[in-house]
Amino acid sequence: MMTAALLCALVVAMTFVPLLGHYIQRPPKTKELTVEEKRERGFYGFYNRLVAGPFSTAGCISGSFVFLLIGGSWLRI
């Protein structure tokens, strides 16, 4: 009985595993988008527009400075 199980495991290891590897590792049919195209499309583009806008302005830096200045004034040493 143990011999049958070992032979079945050998058959699976020699046939099914390489077949799965072939389908998993083959190149995609469509060409992958470049980083610039990804920044303009889909969820990544939406997230990039949502986050990059406010954080790229000088107002964010000065607003953070004022927030920390006011918040720091409440601390007592």
Radius of gyration: 28 Å
Q: Helical amount among residues, as a percent range?
A: over 70%
Based on DSSP secondary structure assignment, what is the total number of beta strands?
Answer: 0
Q: What series of H and E elements makes up the topology?
A: HHHH
Q: What is the approximate shape? A: elongated
- In angstroms, what separates the terminal alpha carbons? 77 Å
* Count of discrete alpha- or pi-helical segments spanning 4 or more residues: 4
Outline the fold blueprint:
Elements: H1 2-25, H2 35-40, H3 42-55, H4 58-73
Could you walk me through the main structural features you see in this protein, from its secondary elements to its overall organization?
- The protein has 77 residues and is an all-alpha fold.
- It has one domain (2-73).
- 78% of the residues lie in helices and 0% in strands.
- The model has no long low-confidence stretch (mean pLDDT 82).
